[in-house]
Design brief:
The chain has about 120 residues and is of the alpha+beta class. The protein has four helices and six strands.
């Protein structure tokens, strides 16, 4: 999956936003909380994303995937190169990363996202 496709996918999730942080990192958030990070460089070939406890254990045993620096204790995975996972699998893990973070938001924030989530569910 290309960085452009990753950006488009991440921004398609309900309530997802993007910021540039830490110099040149594209950070995708929901409710102000990060769920994925990729370099803003055109040729980026690595990224990190939030994973469930079980997925974290499974993914970090695969070639090209490792615990993300600074974020491993929070079950973040780093993939390098991006081709280490098939596009459909990476898309599914990014969708899940968004869902994990959204589910842990305060109720008031989740409720504010509910209309966007409902619209998203109707489009599928």
């Amino acid at each position: 999956m290309t960085p452009v496709a990753i950006r488009k996918l991440c921004l398609s999730f309900p309530g997802a936003t993007e910021t540039i942080q830490w110099g040149n990192e594209r950070v995708f958030k929901v409710g102000g909380k990060m769920f994925a990070v990729i370099s803003a460089d055109r040729g980026a070939d690595a990224m990190s994303f939030k994973a469930s406890d079980e997925s974290f254990r499974l993914l970090t045993e695969l070639p090209g995937l490792a615990p993300a620096p600074y974020l491993a204790r929070a079950q973040w995975v780093r993939i390098e190169p991006l081709a280490s996972l098939p596009d459909a699998d990476l898309a599914a893990y990014l969708r899940r990363a968004h869902a994990i973070v959204a589910a842990r938001l305060p109720k008031k924030t989740r409720d504010a996202l509910a209309p966007a989530i409902s619209r998203s569910a109707r489009r599928r």
